[in-house]
Specification:
The chain is built from two helices and 21 strands. By secondary structure, the chain is mainly beta. This is 5-deoxy-glucuronate isomerase.
């Protein structure tokens, strides 16, 4: 399914078997750029959308904004795409200045994110944050259980114990490595290289996942997401193909086992982030792909 030298080519070499019959779920789409936010507070605006295991919160904040979590159940993620933005993360006795163009993992418990100059940010939470699940306009989208997705289980705690960990996204590409991948106990985040101009239509990468969702967060440019539901032996699973055109910021949550690929379509920079909850084992097993693997062990390794 992969063209040329795509580094993912060997991951799905044995994935030609037909998907199991049963519940074939619909995608979850959120276009923040043309919908009202779910929350407006002190001049800051926040949109929410959920997947099976997670909630994504996208915020546009004013100077001095504070985003606080009390009694946070598990580790969560702060993503700052703009190099000009910055934040201060307070947790326990720590007060960590976070630069823009970074991903930061924040431990469970009480914490605050302060935006001294305001800015745009995404946060990622598991569905253990029940208050945030309720805030999602698609909160009831998973009332029918997803047979293809195992129950969420966190990965092992980080080496050296809990602390605020930030990682710069300013990482050069390397041949044979796919994107810029970071993981924690709850999420895997892959900041894909910016696509300048439309993607070559002769170099697409259609593929599917058997048992986990892919969340694609568009933060710049425009995209067309192509979705194809496989023909199983049960016609009740069949769906028409879809080509979903989106701008930024937006989110598409792709359910398994839908075949999917995405084409950047604007003439400028097209910026996409792929998100998985919990982390992907196949990516984690690829040597050198997870840039912070020394900090976060895989299951069964400690």
């Amino acid at each position: 399914m992969y063209k040329d030298k795509d580094p993912r080519a060997d991951l799905f070499a044995a994935a030609a078997k037909p998907p199991a019959t049963g519940l074939i779920a619909e995608e979850q789409l959120a276009t923040f750029y043309d919908t009202a936010p779910q929350e407006e507070r002190d001049g800051s605006r926040t949109w929410y959308v959920r997947g099976c295991n997670f909630v994504l919160a996208y915020s546009e904040t004013k100077e001095g904004a504070v985003l606080e979590r009390k009694g946070q159940a598990d580790e969560y993620v702060l993503y700052l795409a703009n190099p000009a933005d910055r934040a201060v993360v307070e947790w326990g006795n720590e007060k960590v200045e976070v630069a823009g163009y970074s991903v930061t993992f924040i431990p469970p418990g009480d914490s605050r994110i302060v935006l001294p100059a305001g800015g745009k940010l995404a946060r990622l939470f598991t569905i253990a944050s029940k208050d945030l699940v309720k805030a999602c306009p698609n909160a009831d989208a998973y009332d029918t259980p997803r047979q293809h997705i195992p129950a969420f289980e966190p990965w092992p705690e980080p080496v050296g114990g809990w602390k605020v960990r930030q990682y710069s996204l300013n990482v050069p590409d390397e041949p044979g490595r796919f994107g810029r991948i970071f993981r924690c106990t709850t999420f895997m985040v892959n900041a894909l290289p910016s696509q300048v101009g439309p993607r070559d239509p002769a170099k697409m990468s259609p593929h599917h996942h058997d048992d986990f969702e892919q969340c694609s967060l568009a933060l710049g440019g425009s995209f067309t997401h192509y979705l194809r539901w496989a023909w199983t032996t049960d016609m009740g699973d069949w769906r028409d193909d879809k080509a979903i055109d989106v701008g930024s910021p937006s989110v598409l949550v792709i359910p398994p086992p839908v075949i999917h690929t995405t084409r950047a379509s604007s003439d400028g920079n097209n910026d996409l982030v792929d998100i998985f909850c919990p982390p992907r084992m196949d990516f984690s097993l690829k040597p050198g792909w997870v840039l912070n693997d020394a900090d976060y062990p895989m299951p069964g390794t400690r």
